[in-house]
Amino acid sequence: MDKNQKVLEADSIWLEYDGRKILQNIYLKAETGKVTGLLGRNGVGKSSLLRIIFGTLPAQSQSVRINGAYVAEPYKQHGLLRYLPQHRFAPNLSLKTLCSCYDVLLEQMVAYFPELGEHTREKINSLSGGKVRLIETMLVLLSPVSFVILDEPFTHLSPVVTETLMQVITDQKAHKGILVCDHLYHQVLAISDAAYLMVPVGRTILLTDPLTELSAYGYTL
Questions:
Q1: 164 — phi, psi (to 5°)?
Q2: CB-based contact 140:84 (threshold 8 Å)
Q3: Which of 2, 37, 14 is nearest to 205 (CA)?
Q4: What does the angle CA 151 – CA 154 – CA 112 come to, to the nearest 5 degrees?
Q5: Three state DSSP letters for the chain
Q6: Which end of the chain is less enclosed by CB atoms within 10 A, N or C?
Q7: Which of 37, 84, 46 is nearest to 192 (CA)?
Q8: Residue 118 confidence (pLDDT) above 90
């Protein structure tokens, strides 16, 4: 392994609510320089897993490691990782101010999506849901961190915007490791160097022949 490469691993994760098991038998690995996909039907615990990896959801048991070293609360580690949740999270500030807060170059964001250049001084609550989602995704994706976690980044985006965002993800993996979870599995597989499928009860399977295995597990028709 290159001395500058970082490896994020998550395993020994056990999560249950009121005696109902949500996650068990989990193993997932993401590496800088690569995109890792995470697929699975609604309700299998994907978002819970991502929050546990980020460090904001406590579990009965969990192990998140960077290059083999246990990290208790990854989100508190400066420059380590950022997370795109499914819900809106950015405060009602201008795009220019938000980029400054996230150490993201506004010019870089606008280079990919010129239409955002018309809204640099507008507060984001005045923008459409799709543009807010795009801005939040780009803030996380362009952040100067080792890893980013993207939960449903293609939600509410048009096919053209989705295609450009896929290119951004591909470009950014040169600088970081990217973990992406989305129901648009063709898009996820197209940009992923490795992909996992989550199946009940909260178990991960590393896919070696993705389309065949997704069909075998009933994820696709």
A1: -65, -40
A2: yes
A3: 37
A4: 115
A5: CCCCCCEEEEEEEEEEECCEEEECCCEEEEECCCEEEEEECCCCCHHHHHHHHHCCCCCCEEEEEECCEECCCHHHCCCCEEEECCCCCCCCCEHHHHHHHCCCCHHHHHHHCHHHHHHCCCEHHHCCHHHHHHHHHHHHHCCCCCEEEEECCCCCCCHHHHHHHHHHHHHHCCCCEEEEECCCHHHHHHHCCEEEEEECCCEEEECCCHHHHHHHCCCCC
A6: C
A7: 37
A8: yes
Question: What tens digit of pLDDT does each residue of 160-207 get?
Answer: 999 999 999 999 999 999 999 999 999 999 999 999 999 988 789 999
Residue type, 21: K
Say which residue the tokens 């940009």 belong to: 191
Summarised one tens digit per residue, pLDDT across range 87-109 is 999 999 999 999 999 999 999 99
